[in-house]
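User: Quick sanity check before I run a bigger batch. Here is a single chain. Can you write out its predicted 3D structure?
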Amino acid sequence: MKTLQQDAQNALERLREMRPVVHSITNYVTAGDTANMLLAAGASPIMADDPADAAEVAAGANAVMLNMGTLSERRVLAMLNAGRAANERGVPVVFDPVGVHLTEFRQNSAMEILSKVKISIIRGNLSEMLFMGGIPVKSHGVDSSDAENAELKFTAAREVAGKYGCVCAVTGKNDLVTDGRAAVRLENGTALLRKITGAGDMTSAVTAAFSAAAEPFKAAVFGTAFMGICGEIAEKLSENKGMGTFRAELFNAAGMAAEAFAERIKIVGVEG
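Assistant: Done. Predicted structure follows.
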């Protein structure tokens, strides 16, 4: 675990030295927050979502993040163009299948993206991962409402990682990251992250930024932990001041020192 924490410090330092360009085709409701979180963490965002230039932008990026939050046929085409261009250049692609279990359009779109684009990391909540893994889902909208069952979470993550040959990160009260063999459980975060729009979108974007500085498994661990730690810091600094202050402190926290980031990661289990 100490080695993983040292790797986390090194990865954040490298990310800030690189200032990777992260091409995010994301939820228009939270695109501004996603871009600002990337900037605060040390990356350089670009949010090109038109099919006409998505491929060219992705080809020149250091990482790509595809998010299904506000889906349309036009955005799906842009994601396909960006994803394939990224694959051709060896650029890592992070996929966030928001609400994949809710509609036939989302399900078909996700399957098309996964069949045509090689994904490095899939990040989502438990309901999304259960569906992706072929396990019955109970949910409320795009939020996960399945019980925070550690065994169920690991089963879903392992199924998704094996099925799509990628790293899977399932976030929630606790986070789990697996490549289908090794697995890491994390306990960073706060319930307040569920009270703001876009916490998951920002987590996926930061994970994409880390994928430019570390291999996929570690990038998924560091990206999920980073957002959780930002939430912890923001909660402490905004105590009794309301959600607006919490949201502002979330971006301030993203400027934490790399050493402090590594020290705060709460790894509660390593398997494989």
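The longest strand covers residues 21-25.

User: Great, the batch can go ahead then.
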